[in-house]
Amino acid sequence: MDKQRFWQLVEDTRAPISGPGDGQDVARRASAELALRPAGEIVAAERALWGLMTDSYTTPLWAAAYLINGGCSDDGFDYFRGWLIAQGREVFERAIADPDTLAELPVVRACAAGGGCLEDEDVLGIAWNAHLAATGEQLPDGAFTLRHPALAPGWDFDDRGEMARRLPRLAGLFLE
């Protein structure tokens, strides 16, 4: 399964779900659908998922997660990206290209107005859970390689002025 087919799995399982905050439902449905496929395809889905996690490991996106969630640890950034993947390919790709576009999403605006955290750890376990359900075993060792590209230096997430300059729409929602 390549990234294109993984995105199709996400889109197919997102379609009947009511809202953008329902990443757990996307993860549950995607795992159930994926568990019906051969074990090799499940392992390939794990590689595709972690490829997306690598693609989204950027300083600007981490800064956006930091603003939206009121701080963001290493694990928190993983879970934020899990939430982002559950939003579907279009939202994901727009956010990677320009994280400030997240300010346009109603769920992000609602988070700014009422608090809350946009994270979804369950999405990171889609293939893991599918493999366990299909085979009764954990994913094989070496099923994927976790690569973290170098982050852009020179960002200070606690500098309100810098964040307002770099991510003006999100800063307008979360720093006002």
Structure in words:
The protein has ten helices and no strands. The protein has 176 residues and is mainly α. Helix 3 runs antiparallel to helix 8 and helix 9 crosses helix 10. The chain is globular, with a radius of gyration of 16 Å.
Structural class: mainly alpha
Helix content: 55-70%
Large-scale geometry? globular
Main sheet overview: none
Number of helices: 10
Oligomer: single chain
Instruction: Return Rg in Å.
Output: 16 Å
Tell me the distance between the termini.
43 Å
Mean pLDDT: 93
Order of helices and strands, N to C? HHHHHHHHHH
Name the poorly predicted regions: none
Count of β-strands: 0
Q: What percent of residues are in strands? A: under 5%
List keywords for this structure.
single chain, 176 residues, mainly alpha
Helix and strand topology:
Blueprint: H1 3-14, H2 23-34, H3 39-55, H4 59-69, H5 74-86, H6 89-97, H7 106-114, H8 126-135, H9 160-166, H10 168-174
Helix pairs in contact: 1-2, 2-8, 3-8, 9-10
Summarize it.
With 176 residues, this protein is mostly helical. The protein is 61% helix and 0% strand. The protein has 10 helices and no strands.
